[in-house]
TrEMBL record:
Gene3D superfamilies: P-loop containing nucleotide triphosphate hydrolases. InterPro entries: AAA+_ATPase, ABC_transporter-like_ATP-bd, P-loop_NTPase. Belongs to the ABC transporter superfamily. Keywords: ATP-binding, Nucleotide-binding, Transport. It comes from Luteipulveratus mongoliensis. Signal peptide: none annotated. SUPFAM superfamilies: P-loop containing nucleoside triphosphate hydrolases. GO terms for molecular function: ATP binding; ATP hydrolysis activity. PANTHER family: ABC TRANSPORTER, ATP-BINDING PROTEIN. Residues 4-234 form the ABC transporter domain. This is ABC transporter.
Length: 305
């Protein structure tokens, strides 16, 4: 099922064209909308929410036109803005409950949903503190909570990992994965970093200067490289011994960190790897297929880095 579709969507500002005849579809699941700053990602979200009127073209969100049914769209859709817009003197519990009621929830239901979503995003213990004292990561979690408090069918997350350290970024991506895969809410998440969406997004849409550069399932983009990583258990020179034994048997192999990378031109190579490790008396810990990263895909094709 398609949750978002646009046809010839154009947004012309006085000095820049933010969207340029953009035609795309976003299916159910988690979709990463990727592009450098200025690619048109935030403008697209605002048009889809009915907050901006496009210069030309059309859009559908959950089967509704956001220009004529903006309020109905916003009842069914959640939105986490890029910029920090949280009131400093209000607690997360008060703010998220208020946003739930603004989205149409009765007060009792909004209070119950607020408790649930703040627990899901990891703010249960801090929910009564004023948000002005929150860290960047906590503020991002509060913004995420208000976006899903009304149990939307679709949620737009605009650069949700901005300003986060690596650990907080990983935790945010895990939360996004849970929303899309466990809660059944379709997600459109924007980012200028291809790599961080690999493990989370089911689909990737790449924008460049307001135009569609590419759209595909993530799995179709990150195809196998035709190599495997082999991890063995043995003495300190175990990798060197296994690698040399493979080369002696005509297999292309080379060191890769604390593992051995092996080219698989024939399925029989896997049997050869197993036999070599066993013959040397080592333990075979893991054989892992190597896939292209999204950055590799687009660098190879001349897309965004």
């Amino acid at each position: 099922m398609t949750v978002v579709g646009t046809q010839g969507l154009t947004m012309q500002y006085p000095r820049v064209r933010a969207l340029d005849e953009l035609t795309l579809t976003i299916p159910e699941g988690i979709t990463g909308v990727v592009g450098v700053n200025g690619a048109g990602k935030s403008t697209l979200i605002k048009v889809l929410l009915g907050l901006l009127a496009p210069t030309s073209g059309s859009a559908q969100v959950l089967g509704l036109d956001p220009q004529t049914h903006g309020a109905a769209v916003r009842e069914r859709v959640g939105y986490m803005p890029e910029h920090d817009v949280l009131p400093a003197d209000v607690s997360a519990a008060e703010f998220v409950m208020h946003m739930g009621m603004m989205s149409g929830l009765p007060k009792a239901a909004a209070r119950e949903r607020t408790s649930d979503v703040l627990r899901h995003v990891g703010l249960a213990e801090e929910r009564h503190r004023p948000m002005g004292g929150y860290s960047t990561g906590m503020r991002q979690r509060a913004k995420l909570a208000q976006a899903i408090v009304h149990d939307p069918q679709l949620v737009f997350l605009d650069e949700p990992t901005n300003g986060l350290d690596p650990r907080a970024r990983d935790e945010m991506l895990d939360l996004i994965g849970r929303i899309g895969h466990d809660f059944g809410i379709s997600v459109a998440v924007t980012s200028h970093l291809l790599g961080e969406l690999e493990r989370t997004a089911d689909h990737i849409v790449v924008l460049d200067a307001g135009q569609l550069l590419r759209a595909s399932d993530t799995s179709a983009l990150t195809l196998s490289t035709g190599t495997i990583l082999v991890e063995v258990l043995g003495p300190t020179d175990a990798n060197q011994q296994v690698g040399q034994a493979l080369v002696d048997r005509g297999v292309t192999a080379w060191p890769s960190g604390d593992k051995i990378e092996v080219r698989v031109d024939d399925p029989k190579v896997l049997d050869t790897v197993r036999d070599v490790v066993v013959d040397l008396g080592f333990g075979l810990v893991r054989i892992q297929e190597v896939h292209h990263t999204l950055e590799e895909v687009f660098q190879r094709q001349g897309g965004p880095a």
